[in-house]
Each structure stands twice: as structure tokens, then as C-alpha cells.
Specification:
There is one protein chain. The chain is mainly α and 45 residues long. 29% of the residues lie in helices and 0% in strands. The structure holds zinc ion. Zinc ion binds next to α2. It comes from Caldibacillus debilis GB1. Pfam families: YhfH.
Length: 45
């Protein structure tokens, strides 16, 4: 039984921030593992 790529992504669990564990809502930034808040904090270094 084949599962379409759409079904695959629909069944993925909510993405969470690698820094604080908060759910990331910005799906278009799928290449980022940090929320905006943590990204701002890491950019200081
Ligand atoms: Zn975060």
C-alpha cells in the first residue's frame, strides 16, 4: 500500500524547538530547528 508524500508529512508530529522545546508553528522554516526566540539568542554569539 503506497502512502503519498502529502500523507507522510501530514502524519509527522509537531516540530519542536531544539533550544526550548516549544512547538514551532512556522512550517515554511522547516530547515530551522529553533524558534525565533532561540535563533535571536544564538545570533548573539
Ligand atoms: Zn526555542
Amino acid at each position: 500500500m503506497l502512502i503519498s508524500i502529502v500523507e507522510f508529512f501530514r502524519n509527522l508530529p509537531a516540530k519542536t524547538c531544539a533550544g526550548c522545546g516549544k512547538e514551532i508553528e512556522e512550517q515554511h522554516e522547516c530547515y530551522v530547528d529553533l524558534c525565533h526566540q532561540c535563533m535571536g539568542m544564538t545570533e548573539r554569539d
